Amino acid sequence: MPPAGIFEPNGRGPHWYRRRRGLRLGIMGLNIRFDNSYGRLPGRFFSRLSATPVAAPRLIALNRALARDLGLDPEQLAAPQGVAVLAGNSVPPGAEPLAQAYAGHQFGGWSPQLGDGRAILLGEIVTPEGARFDLQLKGAGPTPYSRMGDGRAWLGPVLREYIVSEAMHALGVPTTRALAAVATGEQVFRESALPGAVLTRVASSHIRVGTFQYFAARGDKEALEALCAHVIARHYPGAGGALELLEQAAARQAALVAHWMSIGFIHGVMNTDNAHIAGETIDYGPCAFMDGYDPARVFSSIDRGGRYAYGRQPQMAYWNMAQLASALVPLIGEDQEQAVAEASRAIEGFAPAFEAAWLARFRAKLGLSLPEEGDAALIGDLLDKMAQHGADFTNSFRGLSDDKADEPFLQSDAFAAWQDGWRARLAREPGGWDECEALMRRANPALIARNHRIEAAIAAAVAGDFSLFERLTAALAGPFEPAAQYDDLRAAPRPEEEISATFCGT
Ligand code: AMP
Ligand code: MG
Question: Ligand 1: which residue has its CA nearest to atom 11?
């Protein structure tokens, strides 16, 4: 069969060459049709360089469904030539590898120069449906932005990102995806020697709030303008300019964080360099799903002040939007005072958008389809009681409509008292119990990527056994109606299984 694209009626001139090249690639190996719009931006946006080859690449995970959605052939990716590309050992034709420059506020402190310290953007592909995605290799070796880092990743964080980002996708949360993981056959040195790995990350782009900050801090208005135009064309086609971009970016962040909150997700490192401009979840470092509900919950071992605690995530997302607003001021108007006022106004919608999205998500978790005045109080009351009991977040909500969810809190007097009010409220729902139940089962996952399961899967993988990783990934692909064979994965950790911290030693 000829490789896709050869017989496309794509005109004359240089296309003839492209068709010929396509044919050659079809025979030689991986056929990816790249169209690298970021690489056409001014040179100061990035550094062009290839990944550093690794000793002995071995494919350890391939997301075949995602490959097909992207119009890629999973068999080609799994073949030695494909694995060489996923490891960074070979650059496929049409790729124009580069590392992106960006800056950012890390835990509130300003870092004027971050950038892809260990990631290489291979290029962008456009799916058969016309959607554009970055293909990025994470852990691909040092770049001009590596600072003191080695440019590498070890197997643990690579598997963690693979598991959690794919779980988030299955939960319906906007997120970067994981296409593949490759073991490098090399060691990475952290606290000890660990097996190295490269993750192939797929994202609608890798542009961050920190990308805007990078140019704003340099007073480079021309670059800001180019970036703004690029982002509008790519992510916000309806936006008329910087102000509308800001407004819409704030709305997407608000919706994203409300979604996180509704599934007990803690990002853990909401620095502006980890705030995706189009509202995707990005950079799965010390992230975690809560087991027991506690609004002050923090997992990241370096977040000592609790800056990115579960309950602070909306404020922090808003803080990040304020940084985006500052970066965009030069594009908003000549009169700085007025531009600042307009930028501030543009993000004022964040709080009401967050509240509305949060209420809608938590209403659905209680099976409520129509808004009523007292809903916020009803939800708040349940959450307070859950916090007092340290109730498992996922199993408590799931248990409202699923007998299999085993959660002691649901047997408590506190819950029984709350339940009377909830029942009275449900009685006013137009669709009856069946519809409420269906709504709840779509809003309350039975399965989340629990930390102790992730850690067990990583420990086994380090010892050479990927079966736990594979089982966990397969189960988390269907979190709302999982097969009975995955019932054991629903359980909250026993006290001795509980993982209280995640580490940034990625
Ligand atoms: P993160 O905390 O993962 O968002 O990373 C913050 C910054 O540090 C980014 O610029 C990363 O590219 C960079 N970085 C993280 N780990 C490494 C590493 N092992 N080598 C080089 N740069 C790194
Ligand atoms: Mg980052």
Answer: 117
**What is the DSSP secondary structure assignment for residue 275, as one 8-state letter?**
S
The ligand 1 atom at the shortest distance from the C-alpha of residue 506 is 16
3-state secondary structure of 217: helix
Q: Is 210 in the pocket of ligand 1 (CB under 6 A)?
A: no
Task: Confirm or reject: Cβ of 196 under 6 Å from ligand 1.
Answer: no
- Is residue 118 in contact with ligand 1, taking CB distance under 6 Å? yes
pLDDT at 389: 97
Give the Cα separation of 271 and 110 in Å (integer).
10
Q: Specify the DSSP element, H or E, that contains 12.
A: none
71 Cβ closer than 6 Å to some ligand 1 atom: no
Residue of the CA atom closest to atom 14 of ligand 1: 117
Vertex 482 angle, CA 478 and 487, to 5°: 135
Q: Give the span between the Cα atoms of 51 and 222, in whole angstroms.
A: 29
The model's pTM: 0.94
Count of other CB atoms within 10 angstroms of residue 380: 11
Helical pair 313-332 and 221-235, crossing angle rounded to 10 deg: 120
298 CA distance to ligand 1 centroid (A)? 21
Rounded to the nearest angstrom, the distance between the alpha carbon of 270 and the centre of ligand 2 is 9
Contact 30, 76 (CB under 8 A): yes
Does residue 352 line the site of ligand 1, with CB under 6 A? Answer: no
pLDDT digits (tens, 9 = 90+) for 409-463: 999 999 999 999 999 999 999 999 999 999 999 999 999 999 999 999 999 999 9
Catalytic-role residue among 273, 283, 303, 392: 273
**By C-alpha distance, which of 123, 27, 36 is closest to 76?**
27
Handedness of CA 258, 294, 171, 232 (dihedral sign): positive
283 Cβ below 6 A of ligand 1: yes
What is the pLDDT, as a whole number, of residue 503? 72
pLDDT attached to residue 504: 57
Cβ density class 111-140: b for 16+ within 10 Å, e for less: beebbbbbbbbbbbbeeeeeebbbbbbbbb
* Residues of the chain where predicted confidence (pLDDT) is lower than 50: 1-27
Q: Is 402 assigned a catalytic role?
A: no
The predicted structure's pLDDT at residue 505? 61
- E runs forming strands in 348-465: none
Q: How far apart are CA 336 and CA 342, in angstroms?
A: 10
Which pLDDT tens digit goes with each residue over 457-501? 999 999 999 999 999 999 999 999 999 999 999 999 999 999 888
Residues by chain with Cβ below 5 Å of ion ligand 2? 274, 283
Question: Which residue intervals of 200-303 are DSSP H helices?
Answer: 209-217, 221-235, 242-262
The pLDDT score that the predictor gives to residue 76 is 96
Q: What's the 116 CA to ligand 1 centre distance in angstroms?
A: 7
